[in-house]
Amino acid sequence: MIIDKLYESVKDKGLVCVGLDTSYDYVPGWIMNSSSNLEDAILEYNYRIIDATYDAAACFKVQIAYYEAMGTAGISAYKKTLDYLKSKNCIVIADIKRGDIAKTAEMYAKAHFTGDFECDFITLNPYMGKDSIEPYMGYVKNKEKGLFVLAKTSNKGSKDFQYLKTDDGDKVYKKVIDMLKNLGMDCMGKYGYSSVGAVVGCTELEEAENIINELQNVFLLIPGYGAQGGGALNVAPLIRNNNGGIVNSSRAVLLNYRKYEDGEKRFDYYAREEVLRMRDEFNNMKFIRP
Amino acid sequence: MIIDKLYESVKDKGLVCVGLDTSYDYVPGWIMNSSSNLEDAILEYNYRIIDATYDAAACFKVQIAYYEAMGTAGISAYKKTLDYLKSKNCIVIADIKRGDIAKTAEMYAKAHFTGDFECDFITLNPYMGKDSIEPYMGYVKNKEKGLFVLAKTSNKGSKDFQYLKTDDGDKVYKKVIDMLKNLGMDCMGKYGYSSVGAVVGCTELEEAENIINELQNVFLLIPGYGAQGGGALNVAPLIRNNNGGIVNSSRAVLLNYRKYEDGEKRFDYYAREEVLRMRDEFNNMKFIRP
């Protein structure tokens, strides 16, 4: 089960997931100038960030939107970034947030669990229901693949639909978590977590505390730390004994260099510094998830 | 407003939206054999389908999942298919069902409303809330672009979350439609519809009848006809005076040729036959949407 590999990686390397949301304007001028085109510049930047952080991060999350925005050249850079991560034996989460059904969902599964864009985990959107998740389960059960499905996200708008109270008193996101627990029963790993994880943001401390008792076997991908306002205090309720989740940071890692006068030249060094700082911060947390 | 262009296209050409969900195994053997690679075969197939149907279809919906499944070559075929549709002055809906927030959503907007993958409309998933739709609104208001946001889809699993009853008695999808009507007020076209449309499936007749009074200015992208089991009787409640919506058909159009002995050779002719048959069927409907 891929979730066991992720659990072990967290155990070895800590809770940090580095988000490669690489916007072209994050790339220092000297790399832009020494590259023959945008794709090469993005790749040079990504490779150096990966080299500087992969021994200190549990995994990497690549946000495909940033690459789609650069058209076919961006998609090529996306593929090559995944290839590089795989060559370094990194665990790769493709943050694609796809959501569709039937044959279309099978196509997304094929797209991101095989071939050019193959990765270990994908993120999915549950709005279309259980039959928008099931087409991926064959890969999860038999091909060492995993899912992180959006449940309670970290943005302001998460309240618009995810927090709606249903007529039996549960919120919508709670119903999503119930579905994920159900699907996860068929793909439990040896450390007590299934390969069907959930995206649960750390920006609403009170909400987090309301659901920690419900999370049991659910491994969490936790957004919202750093740029979005969540701190370690908000992360703590979602983590169990230094494991059971990963905390994503993208901009705070990628742009840490901008705080320093010599930052541009040493952007990869400063990315690493931020990963180490986060990791230490998390190591000193008190965990309350039962 | 792009929605006016779509309204006029429906008025001229009828209610059919041709779905280019082109799976490689739909392509007749003789095209496969005469093409030098899969990308060329897909393109030859798509170009012929487009040539045969564009005068009889209001618009085309290209399902990106099928192209993503073929890796970087598929993405190139996707781009070239969009280019061809634009060269024929067709209205193009990119069925991408993306859903993300903030800068990531801006990246998706840039990806699909400019550059290599530019189209007229995109489909979006609302699960993350209003701030997962707002980043596209600048393009909608100022750049002649439009949205179709998932509200009530046509699959079985649509009941899992979309149909959940909230504590004020409304279903979740009704809350989504309320949001879309609200966003649409800033981008109303001259025919009474806004450029923020909704995806509302035609598989649940009773549900459709419950919401027709709520749809007012909302233009509909209607899936579920044909292969998914919806018939013209199910479409009728969602259409107002032969307009106000488009009915997608993918497989029933693309694979109509398989019903005929000479189908492979004349797959494009039979695709057109199915489009004409649907169009006539819709023209004879009795509309009940007020």
Explain this structure.
2 copies of one chain form a homodimer. The first copy, chain A, is α/β, with parallel strands linked by helices and 290 residues long. Chain A is built from 13 helices and 8 strands. Chain A has helices spanning 2-13, 29-34, 38-53, 64-68, 71-87, 102-113, 137-142, 158-161, 172-184, 205-211, 232-235, 251-254, 267-283; strands at residues 16-20, 59-63, 92-98, 121-124, 146-152, 196-200, 220-222, 245-249. An 8-stranded parallel beta barrel of chain A has the order 1-2-3-4-5-6-7-8, surrounded by 5 helices. In chain A, α3 runs parallel beside α5 and α3 crosses α13 (267-283). The longest helix of chain A has 17 residues, at 71-87. The radius of gyration of chain A is 18 Å and the shape is globular. The two termini of chain A are 23 Å apart. Chains A and B meet through α4, α5, α6, α8 and α9 of A and α4, α5, α6, α8 and α9 of B.
Jot down its keywords.
homodimer, 290 residues, alpha/beta, eight-stranded parallel barrel, 13 helices, 8 strands, 42% helix, globular
Total strand count of chain A, please?
A: 8
Structural classification of chain A: alpha/beta
* Major beta-sheet overview of chain A: 8 strands, parallel, barrel
Taken as a percent bin, the fraction of beta residues of chain A is 5-15%
Query: What level of helicity do the residues of chain A show?
Result: 40-55%
Oligomer: homodimer
Strand order of the largest sheet of chain A: 1-2-3-4-5-6-7-8
Mean of residue pLDDT of chain A? 95
Shape estimate of chain A:
globular
Total number of helices of chain A:
13
What is the string of SSEs of chain A from the N terminus onward? HEHHEHHEHEHEHHEHEHEHH
C-alpha end-to-end distance of chain A: 23 Å
Largest interface: A-B, 57 and 57 residues
**Which stretches of chain A of 5+ consecutive residues score pLDDT under 50?**
none
Radius of gyration of chain A: 18 Å
